[in-house]
Amino acid sequence: MSDQTLNLTQLLDTFQLFDKNKDGCICANELRAACQKLQLTIDETRMRDLFRNRESITFDEFRQIMQEFGQHAPDAYLHETFRAFDHNADGFITAKEIKKTMKRLGEPLTDKQAKDMLKAADTNQDGKLSLEEFRTLFNYITQQATTPPLSPIAPAPNTPSKKRFSNPFKSQTD
């Protein structure tokens, strides 16, 4: 897949983010909000055509619309994802913000898991992720759609089964 197009995982994540009532469809206002957040322009004629004789569109229809904007969407998607994690809008993501966002997404993490996730991309080791550090993690995650970079490690025998995450930036021999 080209770097110029959104992959299916990104599109599904975006769709779910803007499907506010979680009914599997998005209405005109939700689509308009998604396009604005992704810095994509959709003209009102197209909106009227899409929603003629119906109140919402499905994920497949959303995917087709977003792929029309493919050459601009990846960077906008990165920025929007960063903003979703950066709750206080200070330009950095902390472990606390990671934990809060993941919980909102239905993937709760422990404090340690959130800190480990942050450490995986915190190249300057300042305890927070800048947009560029987040871009590294984001690109790794989106390029490895079939193998998540922060995958649970099996616990050692006779230890409680608590999820731990591996650092995707360390080699297997480290």
TrEMBL record:
<dbReference type="InterPro" id="IPR011992">
    <property type="entry name" value="EF-hand-dom_pair"/>
</dbReference>
<keyword id="KW-0677">Repeat</keyword>
<dbReference type="InterPro" id="IPR002048">
    <property type="entry name" value="EF_hand_dom"/>
</dbReference>
<dbReference type="InterPro" id="IPR018247">
    <property type="entry name" value="EF_Hand_1_Ca_BS"/>
</dbReference>
<dbReference type="Pfam" id="PF13499">
    <property type="entry name" value="EF-hand_7"/>
</dbReference>
<feature type="domain" description="EF-hand">
    <location>
        <begin position="109"/>
        <end position="144"/>
    </location>
</feature>
<feature type="region of interest" description="Disordered">
    <location>
        <begin position="147"/>
        <end position="174"/>
    </location>
</feature>
<feature type="compositionally biased region" description="Pro residues">
    <location>
        <begin position="149"/>
        <end position="158"/>
    </location>
</feature>
<keyword id="KW-0106">Calcium</keyword>
<feature type="domain" description="EF-hand">
    <location>
        <begin position="6"/>
        <end position="41"/>
    </location>
</feature>
<dbReference type="GO" id="GO:0005509">
    <property type="term" value="F:calcium ion binding"/>
</dbReference>
<protein>
    <recommendedName>
        <fullName>EF-hand domain-containing protein</fullName>
    </recommendedName>
</protein>
<feature type="domain" description="EF-hand">
    <location>
        <begin position="73"/>
        <end position="108"/>
    </location>
</feature>
<dbReference type="InterPro" id="IPR050145">
    <property type="entry name" value="Centrin_CML-like"/>
</dbReference>
